[in-house]
Amino acid sequence: MHRKHLKTLEIIFSNPVNGNLEWSRIEALFIAIGCNVLEGNGSGVMFEKDGAREYFHRPHPDKAALRYRVKAAKEFLVRLGYKG
User: Fold this and answer.
1) Contacts 24+ apart (CB under 8 A), 12-18
2) Of 3, 10, 20, 27, which sits with the fewest C-beta atoms within 10 Å of its C-beta?
3) Secondary structure class of 67 (helix, strand, coil)
4) What domains can be seen in the chain, in order of their start residue?
């Protein structure tokens, strides 16, 4: 994992939840930790690793992952064994 991915991980686990994080950084983090990307219809995307799956809608037209997406990303990372 690169330094930018570690910073993204730190932001995801920060309290209060940061709703101003760019979605592309979360996606890059998931890929960096070895998640498979399964494209869905339209803006839908699923990430899968070690049998754990999580489905997201990419934000559009805005680039920011709102708080609920950041929280969902955090919950997925926790299921994968990552801690803040």
Assistant:
1) 12/70, 12/73, 12/74, 12/77, 12/84, 13/74, 13/77, 13/83, 13/84, 14/84, 17/67, 17/70, 17/71, 17/74, 18/67, 18/70
2) 3
3) helix
4) 3-79 (3.30.920)
What residues contact 56, with CB distance under 8 A and at least 6 apart?
A: 44, 45, 46, 47, 69, 72, 73
pTM of the model: 0.93
Q: Please, which residues bridge with residue 55 across strands?
A: 46
CA pair distance 34, 14, nearest whole angstrom: 22
Over residues 38-75, the pLDDT tens digits come to 998 889 999 999 999 999 999 988 899 999 999 999 99
